[in-house]
Design goal:
Keywords: Cytoplasm, FAD, Flavoprotein, Oxidoreductase. Its cofactor is FAD. It is found in: Cytoplasm. Pfam families: Amino_oxidase (PF01593). The structure is a single chain. 31% of the residues lie in helices and 18% in strands. It is an alpha/beta fold. It has two domains: 196 residues, FAD/NAD(P)-binding domain (3-Layer(bba) Sandwich), CATH 3.50.50; 215 residues, Polyamine Oxidase, Chain A, domain 2. A six-stranded mixed beta sheet has the order 5-16-17-18-15-19, sandwiched between helices. Strands 6-2-1-12-21 form a five-stranded parallel beta sheet, covered by helices on one side. A four-stranded mixed beta sheet has the order 11-10-7-13. Helix 4 crosses helix 6 and helix 9 packs across helix 14. The relative contact order is 0.20. The structure holds FAD-MDL72527 adduct (6YU).
């Protein structure tokens, strides 16, 4: 593969996130290859920033399921980017259900730490209910259209059987409500009522104890970028339109005709035989109508409209001194008067902060300082993006004082947060299978154009990105695999079959 000048086909990739870099890494067929990235940096939703005395991940945080079946784990291990514990055989075998397992403490809104027994037994109820959604995969009749409606109906059925007094039962409901908010962060959605029940368990988890990158998640895309020939990635090159099914010629060369022309916001345009589109589903939802000419086939446009793409943001707070016990790595929050059986508040201004699930303690403090990372999903998260740093910091100081029962708790000394919904080239955090859509829509989104396989100019527009991976959507490994998939599609077309090197 060459940056430019080879004799093979011309390939453009829109974006320089993990899907795009993965495609570039594996494209052996391309004679000319360029990645056009809108931002001033590569990595997309992988975004490490300096914060406190260390680093903060504004986007992807963990390798979910770091084990041999996870290509991000294999690639990162091969590049030597992971800490020693990630390589331990025993960690790779842990069945954590694709999420980090962290020792936790739960603060109630009355300013007290909640009983771990009550919290754990309630979490077990939620987890069993979530597990029971497996039976609906590919099932004909569903008890409810969404995961949220199903879970709430089950909770309403079970609640009368719970032991304990009315206060304990209310507290259990409040803890369950906190479980719903965590699930919203995991699915990247405003409400579990928006997540389709039937296909929910098509998302597949891998074994392994979730791990982080000691040098920052961005060390992975940085490393992949540095392996590409200089000049392959063009930064600050937002693409405005992709014309396909055309007959475009370069000035002064009447011989060669290209089916694809990509125009950038700055007026530059590029002709190509193939373009791999890796822009996020959030961008496609907003822009697909004028982004493609001719417009996308109706089936694909419908898949873009139906699939879900929501917001999950992070708020990093740095403290002079920790107020938490060093044994805990997760500080959870429960608003004691809430219940999944009651209507949630729609007053974002008054209540946005109640959607925050709590904080992950960033470890180790010697490297990062005393830093907490809060997670918040949905419309409340999007509202938070409209506030200033000072407003968020003062609200969270007030919240932490309430939760700890300490009105003197010192305010954090600094704050850093993500704003993925306002980001014009993302418009949210990651995809989910929404009510009214299914895994088939993911496959439709991934289908290259033109749809007619007998078209003499095949594979003009290809689609990669996390939202195009049917079982690993919403993850970095889904993104990487989707990029590799589309590169192999082109390699196959041109018979470029030699084994990939040096990637694992
Ligand atoms: C993971 C994790 N993680 C937290 C948060 C976020 C995400 N993910 P990119 O967007 O990277 O690249 C596209 C590029 O295109 C980009 O650079 C744009 O600038 C560019 N572009 C757009 N328009 C353009 C134009 N017009 N012209 C030119 N360029 C243009 N994943 O594995 N572990 O811990 C997290 C997390 C806050 C925002 C995450 C995590 C998701 C990944 O970050 C994401 O999937 C990939 O980076 C996307 O790569 P890409 O190349 O596709 O797009 C049951 C069930 C539930 C299902 N969900 C469970 C999994 C939970 C996911 N985990 C989330 C948790 C965290 C904390």
């Amino acid at each position: 593969m060459e940056g430019s000048g080879g004799s093979g086909p011309r390939v453009l990739v829109v974006g320089a996130g993990l899907a795009a870099l993965g495609a570039a890494q594996r494209l052996r067929a391309a004679g000319h290859l360029h990645l056009l990235e809108a931002r001033a940096r590569a990595g997309g939703r992988i975004c490490t920033r300096p914060f406190g005395s260390g680093l903060a991940e504004l986007g992807a945080h963990w390798i979910h399921g770091p084990s041999e079946g996870n290509p991000v784990f294999r690639l990162a291990s091969c590049y030597g980017l992971l800490g020693p514990s990630a390589a331990e055989e025993e960690n790779q075998q842990v069945e954590a259900g694709g999420h980090p397992l962290l020792p936790s403490v739960t603060y109630g809104s009355s300013g007290k730490v909640l009983s771990p027994e009550l919290v754990n037994s309630t979490r077990a109820i939620f987890s069993d209910l979530l597990d029971s959604t497996h039976v609906f995969l590919h099932a004909d009749g569903l008890p409810a259209p969404s995961v949220g409606q199903y879970l709430r109906a089950e909770i309403a059925r079970l609640a009368p059987t719970w032991e304990g007094d009315e206060n304990t039962k209310q507290l259990r409901l409040a803890i369950l409500n906190a479980c719903f908010k965590l699930e919203c962060c995991i699915s990247g959605t405003h409400s579990m009522d928006l997540v389709a029940l039937g296909p929910f368990r098509e998302y597949t988890t891998l074994p392994g104890l979730d791990c982080t990158f000691p040098g920052g998640y961005s060390s992975l895309p940085d490393r992949m970028l540095s392996a590409l020939p200089k000049g392959t990635v063009l930064l600050n090159k937002p693409v405005r339109t992709i014309s396909w099914q055309g007959s475009f010629r370069e000035d002064g060369d009447m011989e060669k005709e290209f089916p694809v022309r990509v125009e950038c916001e700055d007026g530059d345009s590029f002709l190509a035989d193939h373009v791999i589109v890796t822009v996020p589903l959030g961008f496609l939802k907003e822009r697909h109508q004028d982004f493609f000419q001719p417009p996308l086939p109706e089936r694909k446009a419908e898949a873009i409209r139906c699939l879900g793409f929501g917001t999950n943001n992070k708020i990093f707070l740095e403290f002079e001194q920790p107020f938490w016990d060093p044994d805990y790595q997760l500080l959870e929050v429960v608003w004691e008067d809430e219940s999944p059986l009651a209507e949630p508040s729609t007053d974002l201004e008054a209540n946005w902060f109640k959607k925050l699930i709590g904080f992950v303690v960033i470890q180790p403090p010697e490297q990062y300082g005393h830093v907490l990372c809060g997670f918040i999903a949905g419309k409340e998260s999007e509202y938070m993006e409209t506030l200033s740093d000072a407003e968020v910091l003062s609200t969270l100081t007030r919240v932490l004082r309430t939760l700890t029962g300490n009105p003197q708790l010192p305010a954090p000394r600094s704050i850093l947060r993500s704003r993925w919904h306002s980001a014009p080239y993302t418009r949210g955090s990651y995809s989910y299978v929404a009510i009214g859509s299914s895994g088939e829509d993911i496959d439709v989104l991934a289908q290259p154009l033109p749809e007619d396989a007998s078209d003499p100019r095949p594979l003009q527009v290809l689609f990669a990105g996390e939202a195009t991976h049917r079982t690993f959507y919403s993850t970095t490994h889904g993104a990487l695999l989707s990029g590799w998939r589309e590169a192999e599609r082109l390699n196959d077309l041109y018979g470029a079959t030699e084994p990939p090197c040096p990637t694992p």
